[in-house]
Write the structure tokens for this entry.
Amino acid sequence: MTTATTTRQTVGTPMTRVDGLAKVTGAATYAYEFPTPDVGYVWPVQATIARGRVTEVDGAPALARPGVLAVLDSGNAPRLNTEAPASPDLFVLQSPEVAYHGQIVAAVVATSLEAAREGAAAVRVSYEQQPHDVVLRFDHERAHVAETVTDGSPGFVERGDTEGALAAAPVRTEAMYTTPVEHTSPMEPHATIAAWEEDRLTLYNSDQGPFMSSQLLAAVFGLEEGAVEVIAEYIGGGFGSKGIPRSPTVLAALAAKHLGRPVKIALTRQQMFQLIPYRAPTIQRVRLGAGRDGRMTAIDHEVVQQRSAMVEFADQAGSSTRMMYAAPHVRTTVKVAPLDVLPPAWFRAPGHTTGMFALESAMDELATELEIDPVELRVRNDTGVDPESGKPFSSRGLVACLREGAARFDWALRDPKPGIRREGRWLVGTGVASAHHPDYTFPSSATARAEADGTFTVRVGAVDIGTGGRTALTQLAADALGIPVERLRLEIGRASLGPAPFAGGSLGTASWGWAVDKACRALLAELDGYGGVVPDGGLEVRADTTEDMELRASFSRHSFGAHFARVRVDTDSGEIRVDRMLGVFAAGRIVNPKTARSQFLGAMTMGLSMALLEIGEVDPVFGDFANHDFAGYHVAANADVPKLEAVWLDERDDSPNPVRGKGIGELGIVGAAAAITNAFHHATGQRVRDLPIRVERSREALRAARAEAEKRRPGAAEQGKTVG
């Protein structure tokens, strides 16, 4: 059949999600829902101590219960390849050692979920308990500079003479900032169905990166590469927590191997808080030096964060600081304190979210000290080249975003004096902060096939974790082929579709899309050789972008933005309401404005939640999280979310990537919390440097503001002398 193509343009149009109908009608199949005959259910038994070792697991009471098939512990669980290059917390039930409260120390498999849960409750575990340490401190005796952080850079980086420049600076600021434990909490919990067929493992897994997960699990189970199929057709959110398989996935595969039958697991919300990595808390000291004209000469950013004693991990909390502004003398230090805790890991814009909260708060404090408008201060410190690498930026829209946001927010009418604007009993303020995220692109492969019936099939090992990736890839493929989307079939969500990076780091669409575009255009070239006629059996072309990645090396590639927020604070109760948030972003070409807006607004909402609500409270006695459900761990709900606006600039990025877009999923959260806390200061005149600003902290700030106002009251000093 002749397959004629015409020039079409769907990229850049607000296309409705191609999987929307399947999701709202229930036709979309998530990991836990795949029909699986003769399936068993596994329920973990979790450690009730924070550090020590298991001395005995008594599974007899559980095995006596109806429906219980097996009790696994470190003595009888199948052996894993503990020499594999994997995070130690994946080696489930391989040792009696306990490294954190809630660690899986045994498991019950049964014929029903209820029987497995009851069986797990009947298992008796004895421990040899050891002293534990779960409290992060800035001066923790075990804190040390991380060898590397998650972006591969060293934990300590310095250019210039930071101490000397700080000492010589006419204006200096110094402050400490803290961010707490934050949990990822996707709508769909971590869930897995595991099935073995001899030495081949199939996992239906809620997974952000099927191909990468298959490689990791093959190594962990000592299998040949390609022996693990990971299927992740629909994902209900991940935010980084599903970037690699976690301990429940390994547990399901172990239980299935032990029993010789398929096994499934889905974590409860409480188990999500106990078994799934979180954003590490940070304590940060930021020192800034500047001239009277506002141009910064020195930045010193020191971060202390916790990691698990069993897993090396350090968020890149200082990386944005090194390239954000033009200061010639910059030092970033990332230290980690190994504690007896659940390992932290990636959480939306890992490192950049926490690090930029501190930096952008410090920028606001410097603006106040200098009596310079905070937007203008950031503009004065802009740079045309990456201060760290010396490379030119492929594009840098920071100033344009700040200017556009200021105009839309009527920033020129803002009175800079803090703590003076009232609407009835409410104090009102506005704040700003910059946004940044690296523009990552990883190698990927894709296959494009012309069918005899005039349709096309494109296959790529991508996943859509709710971001709209499936729709964006459909648009990119249709445009590359020059066909309407109705003639295109897109297959994603399987490891066997070939090498592809995970949906993380805001790199998915750009990475997968490059390979898809390349495969589709190569297919058209092949078809030309057949005179546009599809040969019998169809025609298929595979493309890989590994070598193409070298074309990106000459530029420093990042996305930028600006957040603006308007906040009200009730002077009676301390209640904080965010009336309005505006985000302006520069992220190259936007593939689908409809899903992009959704991503930006969702990330901004997470930033609001970070600023005002979310905190994992550590119990120092038991080593657990005291609040491990949504009754105690609060996330933003509809009533908390104000008027949200997300706009983006028409930014041209001369990148070799034909997608010409940058990742946007994480850009919208970076800086959002700082804009809100800066607005809180503008409203009340008081700085709160410890997140979140809950009502208790708001009331403390209001009491401090009243005390300061009382001191400034005419005659207060004389009255104090009389009383004294």
